[in-house]
Amino acid sequence: MPAPTRRFMIFRGLAGGAAAVIASATAWVRPAEASEESEEAAGPILAKTKSIPVGGGRIINGKWVVTQPVKGTFRAFSAKCTHQGCPVSTIRGGTINCACHGSRFRIADGSVAKGPARRPLARKKIKVSKGVIRLS
Ligand code: FES
To answer: I want to staple 124 with a disulfide (CB 3.0 to 4.6 A). Which of 19, 76, 78, 93 is the partner?
Structure first.
């Protein structure tokens, strides 16, 4: 086998350098992509756990209700009243309240505490991790 030429050695050096740059760029991009995918799979953020009072809750963007009936237990519901669809407006005294006709729903499970609504608020699945509550 003949000895490699100088031109061949320079070409081999450049090719090796290019491969190293591509490999390092790929390694740098992968963790960011993986992070975005896992956050996307977990669903949008509703609230931070510390923003939800124990024995109460918060109405989020007029669409969701997040409650903490007992310390460390979180629930989420649709904010749409099951009577005639008004958005619930307050959370007080252990109930989620609709001002339109006075229905009240329990913060623990969304069940009806006072009509005229007959059906519970629609419960939403959530994931709680690292102090953040997300829809799942
Ligand atoms: S729409 Fe809520 S009580 Fe009627």
So the answer is: 76
Query: Would the CB of 101 count as within 6 Å of ligand 1?
Result: yes
Give the pLDDT confidence of 43-76 residue by residue, as tens digits.
889 999 999 999 999 999 999 999 999 999 999 9
Distance, CA of 134 to chain centre: 2
User: Do 89 and 102 contact (CB within 8 A), yes or no?
Assistant: no
Are the beta carbons of 99 and 10 closer than 8 angstroms? Answer: no
- In the structure encoding, which two tokens stand for residue 24, read together? 């390092």
Distance 134 CA to ligand 1 centre (A): 27
Atom 3 (ligand 1): residue with closest C-alpha? 101
* Chain position carrying tokens 């959530």: 126
So where are the chain's domains? 1-42, 45-135
Tell which CATH architecture fits domain 45-135.
Answer: 3-layer Sandwich (2.102)
Instruction: Tell me if residue 24 falls in helix, strand or coil.
Output: helix
Tell me, in angstroms, the distance from the centre of ligand 1 to residue 54's CA.
Answer: 25
Q: Is the peptide bond before 53 cis (omega within 30 degrees of 0)?
A: no
